[in-house]
Design a protein that fits this description.
Elements (H helix, E strand, L loop, with lengths): L11 E4 L15 E4 L9 E3 L2 E3 L6 H6 L1 E5 L7 E5 L7
Antiparallel strand pairs: 1-2, 3-4, 5-6
């Protein structure tokens, strides 16, 4: 089964024709699968966004810095934090 991107806890996915056989030889019905989303060890979810908490000290925010951040596929990416970045 293909799980669509962006599903959330309690969402349901319909699989047409994968349910029980219909009455009197009718076509099979639909199968509904309800999603249960497990927490991720690194990322948290805010709606459709994934959040990675990262601390940046005052000097790094003022002068700019490059940091490696994890990705879902396991290959880290370089994130460029521009100089003059404000808190939050």
């Amino acid at each position: 089964m293909k799980i669509p991107s962006g599903v959330d806890e309690g969402d349901r996915v319909r699989l047409t024709g994968e349910g029980d056989a219909g009455r009197n030889g009718g076509p099979p019905g639909s199968l509904y699968v309800y999603m249960e989303v497990q927490p991720h060890p690194v990322f948290t979810r805010e709606g459709y966004d994934l959040v990675y908490p990262m601390s940046v000290n005052l000097a790094e925010a003022a002068l700019g810095v490059e940091r490696e951040v994890p990705t879902l596929d396991g290959d880290p990416e370089v994130l460029k934090i521009p100089q003059g970045t404000q808190p939050g």
